[in-house]
Design brief:
InterPro entries: WaaL-like. The protein has 468 residues and is mainly alpha-helical. The protein has 2 domains: 1-73; 79-456, no CATH class. The chain contains 21 helices and 2 strands. It has a two-stranded antiparallel ribbon. Strand 1 and strand 2 form a beta hairpin.
Length: 468
């Protein structure tokens, strides 16, 4: 009976999600933020089901979008290098899903989700927004979630580790990570774990910078300033050194490339950024000194960051020796694979004889050297395509977004993507800028041409009109 009820609920969710794919995709990003809160506090007993809720919602949007021939024609899948690599990656992941080392292809099909399930967003998102203004309003609204989420993070930091606020999914109270002399909690906001929250903060930081550099009404400019202040404070409260390093690298990279291509825009942006930086530098140490002290102690007492960064790049070469030209199969290193095998009574499969943590190492263990070079070849190709888009665009806001997407993908090249669904959704959203931003620039140029044409007609037939 429980299985039947669950199946009916899944079908209802897919059906509702398929009614309006545009609304569903926009709601998906809100769901991504609140999913962890539901898993931790609202329905901890259904934590696993809630984890897959966004997948069912997205599946409904896929069915609606690709089920409509009119929708499919809006952005045809072109025979370009990126598309070719995508199909090669998909074929290799499917091939490795039947790897005997997995014990069962069911594990392989589940593992393919991390590589391929969110990828179609790259082709659908470009048809979601019809104008530059619509994209701006979506980003502006999405970033407003930072305010309640970061306020919750502050409350978590000052609450004891045993507080109900400081739980992981599914409602585990005793495992909250701490840092600093006072054993302050490493905050997670509304997310299930620290890793998801860190990725969310980094992506939001990369989107806030272009908004700060663009022209906004005073109210929204103030909102952006508040958001980036709260985001900065929460970044220290996570205790995630990689997050702070990523934000610093992003900001310096953003300023460097902007100065390289648009020196005047860089000076204008620095004038806007300098007062904000001064306020953050003065206020944050006064109001949130415990967070900064705890982060500083964690950074100075445990100096393993450089080793972990270097290790993330060297692990693939070390792990080749275990399977040589083969791998253990798609999904072999996924954290949910043991639970899936146990729940379905599947064979245990071959044991991987090493400890793995970095995603690069895990990818080569799963897909082998061929799959590794295909997967990271795809990611490098997307980075190059984003750079070319940034170089070609003329409209300031769209250029800034392309630059932000380019930099975030460069600094996260060795980060968790396959095994972090939060970043996976944001990653393919940012990758869609390859197609979305040039399309929006064409739309805006067309509107501008029509406006100029109407003005020419008006001045020709009504030369004395006061509305010229």
């Amino acid at each position: 009976m429980k299985l039947l009820i669950g199946l009916v609920a899944i079908l209802v969710i897919i059906y509702i999600s398929s009614l309006n794919w545009r609304r569903t995709l926009k709601a998906l990003f809100a769901l991504l933020i609140i999913e962890g809160a539901v898993r931790k506090w609202v329905l901890p007993q259904a934590s696993d089901m809630i984890y897959f809720l966004k997948d069912f919602v997205l599946l409904g949007a896929y069915i609606s979008y690709y089920g409509s021939s009119a929708s499919a024609r809006r952005l045809p899948i072109k025979n370009d290098p990126i598309t070719m690599i995508i199909f090669l990656v998909a074929a290799w992941c499917l091939f490795q899903a039947f790897n005997p080392s997995l014990g069962s292809p069911m594990v392989g099909f589940f593992g393919m989700r991390g590589y391929l399930f969110y990828l179609p967003l790259m082709w659908i998102i470009p048809t979601l927004f019809q104008s530059e203004e619509e994209l701006y309003k979506f980003l502006r609204s999405h970033l407003l979630f930072l305010v309640p989420v970061c306020l919750l993070g502050i409350a978590q930091f000052f609450a004891p580790a045993s507080s109900p606020l400081n739980v992981y999914a599914p409602g585990e109270v005793t495992s909250a990570a701490t840092f600093g002399v006072t054993s302050s909690v490493r905050v997670t906001g509304t997310f299930s774990y620290i890793s998801g929250y860190s990725v969310y903060l980094l992506v939001c930081f990369s989107l806030l910078i272009p908004l700060l550099a663009s022209s906004q009404y005073k109210w929204w400019k103030l909102a952006s300033v508040i958001e980036i202040f709260l985001l900065t404070v929460n970044s220290f409260m996570t205790g995630a050194r990689g997050l702070i390093i990523g934000e610093v690298l992003f900001l310096f990279g953003y300023l460097f490339f902007l100065a390289f291509t648009r020196p005047i825009s860089t000076v204008r942006f620095l004038r806007q950024l300098l007062p904000l930086a001064i306020v953050v530098a003065i206020v944050a140490p006064i109001w949130f000194r415990p967070a900064i002290n705890a982060f500083w102690l964690r950074t100075t007492s445990n100096q393993d960051v450089s080793g972990r960064i270097v290790g993330s790049f060297t692990q693939p070469f070390e792990f080749i020796k275990y399977k040589e030209l083969d791998g253990y199969g798609t999904g072999a290193t996924h954290q949910a694979a043991p639970a899936l095998k146990k729940a379905l009574g599947l064979p245990s499969g071959e044991v991987i004889p090493t400890y793995y943590e970095s995603e690069m190492g895990r990818v080569i263990l799963e897909l082998g050297p061929v799959g590794f070079f295909l997967w990271y070849g795809l990611r490098v190709s997307i980075i190059i395509a984003l750079w070319l888009v940034f170089w070609k665009l003329k409209r300031a806001f769209l250029r800034h977004l392309a630059l932000a997407a380019f930099i975030i993908q460069v600094i996260q090249i060795n980060g968790q993507l396959v095994f972090n669904h939060t970043f996976s959704i944001y990653y393919w959203f940012l990758s869609s800028f390859i197609f979305l931003l040039p399309r929006l620039e064409q739309v805006e140029n067309w509107h501008r041409e029509q406006q100029l044409l109407q003005e020419d007609v008006s001045s020709t037939y009504f030369p004395d009109s006061p509305y010229q």
